[in-house]
Fold YggT family protein.
Amino acid sequence: MGSQMGSAGLMLVNTLINVYLFVLMLRFLLQFSRADYYNPVSQAVIKATRPVVAPLQRIFRPRGRFDPASLVAGLLIKGITIFVLLKLAGIGMPPIQGVLVAALAGVLSAILDIYFFALIIMIILSWVAPQASHPGAILVHQLVEPIMAPVRKVIPPLGMIDLSPIVVFIAINLVDSLVVGALARAAGLPGMLVGF
């Protein structure tokens, strides 16, 4: 019973850290997509991540659309979490290169999950509220547009039917299974520590 409670506690901590990692990567992607900085949702994400990102921005300065401090913060948080959870589980000292590779896989998994959920939300909004002016809806469109625009150039909409989300979903699944999966296997650590 005690080991099951300990396992549940470790899973809860891992889930909470993954949610925060999700928010950190959302901050990174919002800046990358040049989403509206003054949008209330953007401001909430920035406020939630400021304590971790602001000190790192003194070392890793933002460069246009690219904010390396958010990525470094995500890698550090994920790496430290993996290390601590393995120690608490009694597995011992994990190999540092395995932790780094697993942290990279976790960050990439979070980025892919953000795009996946944003695409689903965008598709649902296009059906139920195509002209939505809610700040969250606007932000979703601003977030996915940088990955949708190149696909739309190759596969333009066919009247009212836009096939580009299908292509992007396939690309997300391929990157997730090939790249993130390969990194997770290369890390040699339990899979639950890597992804969501």
Q: What stands out?
A: The two ends are 25 Å apart (CA to CA).
